[in-house]
Amino acid sequence: MSSIPAPPSPWPTSSDAAAAVSTQPNALVDFQPVPRRGRHDGWTVARQRIFIAALADSGSVTHAGAQAGKSTVSAYQLRRARNADSFAAAWQAALDQGVRRLEDIAMERAIHGVEVPVYSYGKLVGTRRVYNDRLLMFLLRCRAPDRFTPLSPAHASRKTRTPDPNSGPGSPAAIAAVERVLEEIRRRRALTGT
Fold this sequence. Notes:
Largest sheet: 2 strands, antiparallel
Radius of gyration: 31 Å
Strand order of the largest sheet: 1-2
Shape: elongated
Order of helices and strands: HHHHHHEEHHHH
């Protein structure tokens, strides 16, 4: 068991977001900012670009708003504003990039596990690595559905079996067996008079 190092923050800082504006793909950087009246505390062009960059990094509107120094409510209002089509498209592209980042984080956790603390008598004594097989199965089904879903070719033989018309509840043999049982019940009732 190892000691616990301080975990790195999964969220970029505002300086990271500002620096990332110049390194983002064109769909995120080349949007037309929403024209706003000049206010020092409003949605300036720089704040809009920081917001989109932070949204692409984190996938979280709340976090991106905090990085830009604006509220989540005002971010949604800006997206609904007149002439905000380009900003809304950049927002969607940033969310798509953020989701891909979350997929990568989930895959990393599924493959390498997560360190969890181990306590003994209330004191931290070390860590152990925990793996999440359900997460791994989910990711395999999503990323390679042709090989890991119940409808994959490996499982198709079970799904595509044609039923035998001479077996099952509606088959002639089953109906005949039920009729024999009913006839026996009728015969016994006749003997006992019930």
